[in-house]
Specification:
Layout lengths: L2 H19 L9 H13 L2 H8 L3 H15 L4 E4 L2 E4 L1 H21 L13 E6 L1 H18 L4 E6 L5 H7 L4 E4 L8 E16 L11 H6 L2 E4 L8 H8 L6 E5 L2 H8 L5 E5 H4 L8 E4 L7 E9 L6 H22 L1
GO molecular function, one term: DNA-binding transcription factor activity
InterPro entries: LysR-type_TF, LysR_HTH_N, LysR_subst-bd, WH-like_DNA-bd_sf, WH_DNA-bd_sf
Pfam family, one: HTH_1
Length: about 325
């Protein structure tokens, strides 16, 4: 059981004990009354307690009157210059202190995060493309700084990533999505362009590939939504030509396996084509038409933007992916 959970359970037990001692209208109790009670126990003086809490003596007397009414007990009896606690006040004091210590030491403490001590799980949503490119580098970076943490990659796409934030739940998402809802924020990591790829042993086309060669082979598509047409088809139609699409898959690795020793050509992101696993006689070239570029975003929930754990993970992913992109491109 975590220390945070143990403290929370103690808080609940303390509150339950306080509630069961009397039938009290706890809606009328605020934290200031508990603080006032604790300070009166420490100082045994209304004036000293007022000075310590930077309130007027009349305000402290009013708090004491409210406590007496709520708890149906005088709590303190004046003897000379001191306020002597009753048996009930003495009984309540350690319970009230537990509640105040839990609130100040756990619930209201400054949010911090120590990666080296973290033993929880980071859950990162990534598109198939982003996971293939960056999962290994992200694992290495997190394992180096947070060696006791666990890491879980979840495949997401444009259609489901927003729901996955809560259903998984996810810490961050990486992919070619730009959220428009105020519940999400994002940062552009880099801009990617497309290239053509084919088996160079079967088809020794010159590079950059010509339009005639480009449309001479059946095409394979990486299609997250299963569509068999893209903006490429519109570009080709404007030039008065067409292509024949033979196969589509949402997974880049599937398309990569299909390219080997087959009469196929496909369009993939440039960084994808530069992976070592794509270098087995597969050739890539700039397309003969305008395919367009796309941005890769890092996305997080607005409500978690101040959380130190999320901030640490966000900055680490930004730095890691920036280094990875530079490596791929050099």
């Amino acid at each position: 059981m975590s220390s945070r959970l143990r403290v929370t359970i103690k808080l609940f037990k303390s509150i339950i004990l306080l509630l069961t001692m009397n039938e009290i209208n706890w809606k009328a109790v605020d934290l200031n009354l508990l603080v006032a009670f604790s300070t009166l126990m420490e100082t045994k003086s209304v004036s000293l307690a007022a000075n310590k809490l930077f309130v007027g003596q009349s305000a402290m007397s009013h708090s004491l009157a409210r406590l007496r009414e709520l708890l149906n007990d005088p709590l303190f009896e004046r003897q000379g210059h001191q306020m002597i606690p009753t048996a009930k006040a003495i009984q309540l004091y350690p319970l009230v202190n537990k509640v105040l210590q839990t609130i100040s030491g756990d619930i209201l403490k400054v949010d911090t995060f120590e990666a080296s001590e973290f033993t929880g799980t980071f859950k990162i949503g990534m598109t198939d493309y982003a996971e293939l490119l960056f999962a290994a580098d992200i694992f290495d970076a997190i394992h180096r700084l947070a060696p006791n943490a666990q890491l879980c990659f979840t495949t997401v796409d444009k259609a489901n990533y927003q729901d996955r934030f809560d259903s998984e739940p996810l810490d961050l998402v990486i992919g070619s999505m730009k959220p428009e809802l105020k519940e999400f924020q994002y940062q552009t990591l880099y801009t990617e362009k497309h290239v053509c790829m084919w088996d160079g042993q079967r088809h020794p086309f010159s590079t950059p590939i010509s339009l005639d060669d480009y449309i001479s082979l059946p095409h394979a598509l990486v299609s997250p939504d299963g569509a068999l047409k893209t903006g490429v088809d519109k570009e080709l139609k404007a030039l008065g030509v067409n292509r024949a699409v033979s196969v589509a898959s949402k997974h880049f690795l599937t398309i990569r396996h299909l390219m080997k020793k087959r009469d196929l050509i496909c369009v993939v992101p440039e960084l994808m084509a530069q992976l070592d696993l794509f270098s087995e006689k597969l050739v890539h070239s700039e397309p003969p038409i305008n395919v367009g570029e796309f941005d890769i975003q890092l996305i997080w929930q607005t409500r978690n933007k101040e959380n130190k754990r999320y901030q640490w993970l966000k900055e680490l992913l930004i730095q890691t992916i920036e280094k990875s992109v530079i490596t791929y491109r050099t």
